[in-house]
Design goal:
Shape: globular
Strand content: 25-35%
CATH architecture of the largest domain: 3-Layer(aba) Sandwich
Structural class: alpha/beta
CATH superfamily of the largest domain: Periplasmic binding protein-like II
Number of helices: 12
């Protein structure tokens, strides 16, 4: 058999498979619409929650568990994420607020979590994201909470202290920074970027561009916009910002730590049910007495519950008083977790459950 005939047979197989995939995707979409009809039938006039974070997490885990390649698990899960995003939009398009502007890593996190069929819009500040979701203008919000190199995003933690919104999910995004400019290399005198990004690339800048001025701006996207047209200016930003504003990459992946990752939180009004692999976040206002933190942490140790993060922030309740933000494995509906929370509540002045939610799948 000739090469042309062999290729012809394979292409016919691909065409046949494409037709089957096409049919199955539409069948899945029809099932999603039927789910919506059933929910409407039994809603009794109450507002329907079409998007269920715990259900989507369960589906994506199953996709990765049964995947046999050659497509990588995460790539296969991303394909299914987009299919679910399209199907959900047939029921109710999600409106998502994120820390903008367009071209930021937070936008990339929003798209990674909700898919391209969600209606994602940038906001000026973290406080604006919280405010717009609380007002009901958006179903969910996406905000950064910590970076593996530079630590916690304090504005996000402080916003939880004043808000009743719940955490309904998390996104872990691998962060690659690039050195961007449309100027000649010899003309570069300054570099723009968000303060976190400047810090994450400090060593690289010290080695390669020690003499240029480092100017913090509100976002990496804004840095790319400035560098696109300002003579002698460079920016540190990601792929999306570089493409959006048409800035050339002079150097790629300049972050100091090769595993540089930022964690983002999904915030909304609804509590999330158990997915089977969850985390819980709480805020604790401890009583001002010796051993206060010990009494907060001891119940976790006794129950064998794994803590994943502890942060301390000043409280507005008084001078030298603090709030503890604690993340741990498990769901607040789990019997052992509920018992731990009950024990902690006896030892603190205030306990606020910020949310129980599926661990990041991708």
């Amino acid at each position: 058999m000739s090469e042309e005939k062999e290729l012809g047979v394979l292409r016919d197989q691909i065409d046949s498979l494409d037709r089957k995939i096409h049919e199955l995707i539409n069948q899945r979409a029809q099932c999603a619409q039927n789910v919506a009809h059933v929910k409407e039938k039994y809603a009794g006039g109450e507002k329907i929650q079409f998007y269920r974070p715990e259900r989507e997490a369960q589906v994506l885990r199953k996709v990765m568990d049964r995947n046999e390649g050659p497509i990588a698990d995460e790539d296969m899960a991303r394909l299914f994420r987009e299919i679910m995003s399209v199907c959900l939009a047939l029921e109710e398009p999600l409106k998502v607020a994120y820390l903008g502007p367009e071209g930021t890593f937070t936008q990339a996190a929003a798209t990674k979590h909700f898919g391209h069929s969600a209606l994602c819009e940038g906001q000026v500040s973290i406080a604006d994201v919280f405010r717009e979701v609380e007002a009901g203008s958006y179903n969910y919000g996406v905000v950064p909470v910590e970076n593996s190199t530079e630590g916690v995003v304090t504005h996000t933690l402080d916003s939880f202290a004043q808000s009743n919104l719940q955490i309904s999910g998390e996104v872990a995004l691998r962060i690659h920074h690039h050195f961007l400019t449309n100027s000649d290399e010899a003309q570069i005198t300054k570099v723009y970027s968000h303060p976190q990004s400047l810090a994450q690339c400090r060593q690289w800048l010290d080695t390669h561009w020690a003499g240029i001025e480092r100017i913090p701006v509100s976002s990496n996207a804004e840095a790319a916009r400035l560098a696109a047209h300002e003579e002698g200016a460079a920016a540190i930003a990601g792929d999306a910002a570089a493409e959006l504003y048409g800035v050339k990459q002079l150097a790629n992946s300049i972050e100091d730590m090769p595993d540089n990752t930022t964690r983002f939180l999904i915030i909304g009004k609804k509590r999330t049910d158990c997915s089977g692999d969850d985390k819980t976040s709480i805020m604790v206002s401890s009583k001002n007495k010796p051993g206060a933190l010990y009494h907060v942490l001891e119940p976790f140790h006794q129950a064998g519950v794994s803590l994943t993060r502890i942060e301390t922030r000043p409280s507005k309740a008084g001078t030298w008083t603090y709030n503890f933000f604690i993340d741990f494995e498990g769901h607040s509906q789990d019997k052992d977790i509920a018992q731990v929370l009950n024990e902690i509540s006896k030892a603190v002045s205030d306990l606020k459950i910020l949310g129980s939610y599926p661990k990041a799948v991708l």
